[in-house]
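We emphasize that the prediction below concerns an isolated chain of 135 residues; any contacts that depend on oligomerization or on bound cofactors are therefore not represented. The input was used exactly as deposited, without trimming of termini.
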Amino acid sequence: MGSSPNRIVATVFGAVYLLVGLLGFAFTGGVSFIATEGGLLLGIFEVNPLHNIAHLLIGGALLIAGLRGVRPAKIVNITVGAAYLLLGVVGFFLVGTAANILALNTPDHFLHLASALVLLGVGLGAERSSRVATA
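Result of the prediction step, given as a token string:
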């Protein structure tokens, strides 16, 4: 994998989000697919089956990109980071509404914003040379 910050962050975050997605299903028994309130993962974060699938897809994209190379990792880190930044901000306005199809709660928003800061920080700040290594 080398010592590329983008590859390391993408791979680690990918593995963590895959694990979170899988663990989430243990807490969503009896919760409908797009319920606006879900089971509590780690006693803090609300999840529903759609939220778990989103974690699996995001984790898979990050992990695959991290294993493929610096350029794919950088692109996916920036893309997922931007999406999490948007979700972290918009999410505050979704709680308590029918649009909250991911069963988001306030701790989710802060975690999404923290993830966004790390992913965007590494994606935009590391390997800034005009020629990005492919290994």
